[in-house]
Structure formats: structure tokens, C-alpha cells
Amino acid sequence: MDFSLFDNLFDAVLVIDENFKVVYANRSAKVLLQREDIEGRNCRGLFSICNSCPFGYVREEGEGVQVYDVETINSKHACWSMSPLYKEGRFVGALEVFRDVSNVVHCIVEAERQRTYKETILNSIVEAILVLDSEGNVIEHNKVASKMLCREEEDILLGKNIKELINLSLEELPPEGERSDIFVETPCGRQKASLLVSPMSSGFGYVVSLYVLNDVSVCELGEEETIITKSPVFQKVLDTVKTIADYDVNVLIEGETGTGKSLLAKYIHYLSPRRNGPFVKVNCAAIPESLLEAELFGYVKGAFTGAVKDKPGKVELAEGGTLFLDEIGDMPLPLQAKILHLVQEKEFERLGDTRTRRANLRIIASTNKNLKELIKRGEFREDLYYRLSVVKLHLPPLRERKEDIPILIKHLLEKYTRKYARRLKGFSAEAMRLLLSYHFPGNVRELENIVEHAVITCRGSLINVEDIQIEAETLQRDREEEKERIKRVLEQVGGNRSLAARMLGMHRTTLWRKLRELGIG
Prior knowledge:
This protein is an alpha/beta fold. It has helices spanning 27-33, 55-61, 102-124, 143-149, 162-166, 232-244, 261-271, 289-297, 314-317, 333-345, 371-376, 382-388, 404-419, 429-437, 443-457, 472-492, 497-504, 508-518, and strands at 12-17, 22-25, 65-71, 77-87, 90-100, 128-132, 138-141, 180-186, 189-199, 206-212, 217-220, 226-229, 251-254, 279-283, 322-326, 347-349, 356-358, 362-367, 391-394, 426-427, 462-463. The protein folds into 5 domains: 4-105, Beta-Lactamase (2-Layer Sandwich); 125-212, PAS domain (Beta-Lactamase); 218-394, P-loop containing nucleotide triphosphate hydrolases (Rossmann fold, 3-Layer(aba) Sandwich); 398-470, Orthogonal Bundle (Helicase, Ruva Protein, domain 3), CATH 1.10.8.60; 474-518, Arc Repressor Mutant, subunit A, CATH 1.10.10. A 5-stranded antiparallel beta sheet has the order 2-1-5-4-3. It has a 5-stranded antiparallel beta sheet with strand order 7-6-10-9-8. A 5-stranded parallel beta sheet has the order 14-15-18-13-19.
């Protein structure tokens, strides 16, 4: 094939055969790559994209690929494309065309940095922020605004007029710089909010900030135990608790480890008519199976070796109050029958005794397991499940209520600086960003551990990233999960990376980069 027509092109051109050998390079390619002897050599290593070379895709799919930023072997940035070459209908290689865009990339990177910087600032603000054009249409907003004003998941704020969102037109907004209280419709219903309007310095439009008044629920339980949340989902749980607390019904609390199930159980107890009675907790997962029955129901003298005197169990100790069965999913199946009898009949027998005793108590249970799945496997009684779950509450994991992270950090920082007599200003912006991006497998309990560790080990007045203890294994697990997700999607689409990028909701260039970073061939 004659490639001489490419000789004087400004764009750099390489022709690669089926064996990855460079069979042609024009003058621009040799200059840009600083390789006069490139023809006849293997093309591997000339570009950063070689680690996930699209040659196979171009050959199989018969379509070209374009990447807007690849790095050349001599550290230049290039806009690069690869297209299939055919001779008499047969694939014979590929045509690579590229151009030095180092200056352009620098400008793009700087613009992206500025955009990310602005976005980070917007999303770190606890108020809902709406940026309006001169006609009152939303041209930008932060995540808090989406959560406050989007009543459905698919709702989009961009392009909407302020009138649609808060029932006030641009002309009806309060004077600039003056706060005004209004009512807005949120996913949690009609709520009172404080509104402030500020003109943009360019004179182009306005910035509107909204802050829901009294949106943080704080439930003090004594002994420095506090439920604190501004999450609408968690607040709905607390509203349900306030409704059912007065009724002596059994409650099942579901949620991952560390979400605060024990605290919620205490809150139910303290709101109930039994608040002056005892609150007795039994961790079903922490007590050996052989001892759990005696721990719950007590025993009489001589019931077993070592039973030298009568001893009441947790059920008796909870008389007049609340018995909290933590991690009920770990309770042995044989013992579940006795718990069912206690729940239904409010009576029990001590181990080794024939006397039936009455029980005046309320039962709250919790689990971090899927009890319905355990029922299917024959590991949990279905009748007990329905007896315990007259009211069922689900606590969301911390990763699903990230709006709580800043206020929880503030609360925990105050708690531990007071405990350890430390004078700290707080967390740096970088440290806060790390915590907001972390997925917290251990939930609030893990966050508390991180804050306490940081308070103790911080050597300055401001807690920085290096003071935050997050296990490298956990960060690596996040990376592995993303790798598996990308590989799974690639398998679903038969290796078509363009389609995979669309399914993953990312640009094709981003997918190429992640394939390289994660080592996906």
C-alpha cells in the first residue's frame, strides 16, 4: 500500500501491521516521538494506552477509537486515534493518527482542577445552594439541594425555574442579603427553611441558599450516648419510634454492624412507659451457645455442675422494663423455641426448675443478618420472626446518609477533646474530604474509632489526613470491588469497551484510564 500521501501532513501518522510492526511513519511522527528509526520496530510502548491496546477491538469491531489524552514515550500529551486498515476487504493493520496537545491538556487540566475545586466547595456547604441565571433558572446546584428539593430520584434541578422549586418567583424572593423564613416541599414533607439571596459579582444572576430549620434530630440518652442525625431516612425512623414507643409491642431493628441499633433500642425504652424500669441487653452472638439459655432464663441450685446457688437470668432482671436481644440472628435454633414461648405467653422457667414464672417486660430485638434468608435455610423460626417484628425498623448504613458525617464528626470531636483534654480546631478540608468519600464498612462505630484515634495522635492543632486511621486493606477492597464491577460489565458486553463505558456511566477515556490503573487487560 502507498502511504506517501501522509508524508507532509501536520498530524503524525503511523501504520501498524497485524504483528504490531510499524511499517510506515511520516515525518511528523518521527519528530513528535523523537524516533528516526521507528519503522520496522514493534509499536508497543510508544504510548501510555499500549497497556490496554485497543488494536483487538478495532480489528474485531471494525470501528475506530479516539482518545483525547495519551502520553507518548517521550512524555508528551497527544490526541490519538486508531482506525482499521483493509486491503481487498481483508484487515491488514491499523492507522494511528496523533497530534501534540500538551499545551491544550495543560489548559484542560487546569480548567478541570478549577471545576473540581468549585464543586468540592459547593458540596462541602451544609446548606442547599442554587445558582440562578438572570431569569431565575437553575444553572448549578450542590448535592444538598438535590436531596432537599428532588422529590423523586429521577428529578433534575438544572433548568428548572426557582418558582417550581420553592413557589416563589425571582421577583418574590426576599431582598438581597436578608434572611427570610419560608416553607418548602421536601421528600420528608413540608418543612420550614431559612432563605438567603445574594447577587453574583458578575451581575449575571443570583445565588440562593436554603437551610432547613431544626433539621438535626438530637436524642440524648445519658452517659454521653446520643443519637444525632439530619438524614431524612433516619429521621423517619425516629418519627416512627415516637409513634410506637407508648405501645407495648415487640420491635425488630435491622441494620449493619455499627449503625446504632443498641442506641435506638434504648431510645425506644426511654420514650416508653417502661422508662423507669431496667433496660437489659443480651448479646446473643457474644455468649457461647452452652451458656446462653442459663444467661437468659437463669437457673436453680444444682441445675448443672457449678450451679451452687439460684441465679436469676436476664429475663427476670428486665422485669418491668425492656429486654433487648441484640443480634437475635445468632441465637441457636433450639433456644428460639423458648424465646417464642416467652414472647407469646410472657412466661418462662429457670434452667433445672419446674416452676413457671411470669414475665412483665417488653422485647426489642436486633439483627445485622437477613432473617428471611435464614428462615429459608432453616436457621431461624418463621413464627418467631413474625412475633418479634410487629414493628420493624431499618437503620441505614452511614454511606447512605453522608449528610450525617459532618455533624457526627463535630459531636465526636467535642466528646473526645473533652475526654482527653485536647484543644483542637477540627479537621482539615483534605481530611474531611477523605472521610466524606470513605464508605465506612463499620458505620458510626468505625467513624467514632477514627475520630478518637485522631484526637489522641494528632500533634498539631488541626487533624490532617495523616492522623486518620483507615486500614489500607479497606481502601484496597474498594479498589478491588471497582475492578470486579468493570470486569463484570465488560463480560456482559463481550469486551466492547465503548458500550461498557456507557453502561458504567463514564467517558470512554475514563474507562481506558481505569483499565490501565486497575491492571485490567
